[in-house]
Amino acid sequence: MTTDTAAPSSAPSDPMQRAIALARNALFISNPNPRVGCVIMSADGTTELGSGFTQQAGGPHAEVMALRDAAARGSDVRGATAYVTLEPCSHHGRTGPCCDALIAAGIGKVVGAITDPNPRVAGQGFDRLRAAGIEVSMDDAAGQQSRDLNIGFFSRMVRKQPWVRLKAGMSLDGATALRNGQSQWITSEAARADGHRWRAQACAILTGIGTVLGDDPMLNVRHIDTPRQPRVVIVDSQLRTPPTAQLFDIPREVLIYCATVDAARRSALEARGAKVIHLPAANGQVDLQAMIQDLGQREMNELHVEAGGTLNGALMQAGLIDECLLYIAPRILGDAQTAFSGMALTQLADTPQMAFKEVTPIGSNLRIRAVVADHERF
C-alpha cells in the first residue's frame, strides 16, 4: 500500500486533521507499529507539499512516505512544516530514525499531536529536532485522537500488554445464542461485516477451545479486503485443539495456550504450525494474566476476543477486558446463552464499572462500544 498522493491544489483547512485521516489508512497494515500520518506544508501554509502514512512493519514510516511523496511531486521541503500525528522516532528499529530524515530534508518546523510512549523515544525525537534548530510545537487537540487511534500501541508500551477488546453479537435481552446453541445469525450481515473490520485492525483474534470444538471457526477476515490476517490465539487448557481444525488452513501464526502438556498432541499441533505455550495457573486452567502479558511481549497491540460466555466471563472477572464491542439486534431470545455466563457475581458492587464510548447504528443493528472504567488512564 502506498501513500495517498491525491493532494488538494490548495492547503487543507486543517493539516493535522488530514494527517489524522491519513493515519487511519494504516489501521490494517502497520501493526505492531503505530498508525501515523504526516502532512508537509509550505512554510507559508498555503500549499501541501507531500503526505503519507505508516506502511507495513519494516516499511517506511509516515514521515519518510511524506518526504518521498514531496520528492515525487517536485516539491522543495526546505523550511516547510511537517504535521505528524505521533512524535517522530529517534531510534533504529526495523527502519532508521524519522527525526533524522526530517532533519536531513531541511524541514523548518514540526507540529506533533502527541509524544511517543515507546521508552526508546519518549520525547527524544522532539529533542533531537530542537537540537537541530527545528521549531517544535504541539497540537494538543489532536493528541487524544492519535492516542485513541493507537490505544493498543499505547497500552503495550505503557502497561506492557495489549488492549483487549471483546466482541459479541446479541439480542436486545443480551442473549448470544439459543439454549440449544443456535446463533447463526442473530445480527445482520452489515453488523458482521463491521465486526470483520475490527478483526482486521487487531494483531490477533482470541477464542477458547469450546468455540473451536463447537463451531470449527476460520477466525479470519473475510468481509473486507486486508493485506494481512491477524494471528490466532486459543485458550486450550487440556490441549484439545484438533489438528484438523480449519483455522490452520489460513497462513498466519497460531498460538495455543495450555495448562497441561500431552507430547503427542503438542507434536501434532506443532506439525500444523502452531506454537504451544504452557502457562498453567493454580486452578489447573491457563493463567490468563500471564497469557495477556506474554502476548504483550510478542508485540501485540490490540487483542480481539470472540469467545464463548465461559472464557468471556473469566477474562472480565480477572480484569483483563478493556473494551466491549457489542452488536445489538432488535430481537428477543428469551431463556438463552449469554455473553458472560462464566461470571459468578453475588454483589452488584462487584460488577465491572463501564462507560459508553460510542453508540452507532449499523444497518438494522446497534454497535455499542463500552470501556471498562479507568482502563484508558495509563
The total of beta strands comes to 16
Oligomeric category:
single chain
Mean pLDDT: 91
What is the topology, as strand order, of the major beta sheet? 11-10-9-8-12-6-13-16-15
Distance between the termini: 32 Å
Largest sheet: 9 strands, mixed
The count of helical stretches stands at: 11
Globally, the shape reads elongated
The whole-angstrom Rg is 23 Å
Low-confidence stretches: 1-9
Strand content: 15-25%
Structural class by sheet pairing and helices: alpha/beta
* Residues in helix, %: 25-40%
What letter string, H or E per element, gives the SSE order? HEEHEHEHEHHEEHEHEEHEHEHEEEE
Provide a quick synopsis of the model.
With 378 residues, this protein is α/β, with parallel strands linked by helices. The protein has helices at residues 15-24, 62-73, 98-105, 124-131, 140-149, 151-159, 189-201, 209-215, 263-271, 288-297, 309-317; strands spanning 37-41, 48-53, 81-84, 109-112, 135-138, 163-171, 175-178, 204-208, 231-235, 254-258, 274-278, 302-305, 323-329, 336-338, 354-362, 365-372. It is built from eleven helices and 16 strands.
How would you sum up this structure, described in words?
The chain is of the alpha/beta class and 378 residues long. The chain contains eleven helices and 16 strands. Strands 11-10-9-8-12-6-13-16-15 form a nine-stranded mixed sheet. The chain has a five-stranded mixed sheet with strand order 2-1-3-4-5, sandwiched between helices. The protein has a two-stranded antiparallel sheet with strand order 7-14. Strand 1 (37-41) and strand 2 (48-53) form a beta hairpin. Helix 1 (15-24) runs parallel beside helix 5 (140-149). It is elongated, with a radius of gyration of 23 Å. It starts with 14 loop residues before the first helix and ends in a 6-residue tail after the last strand.
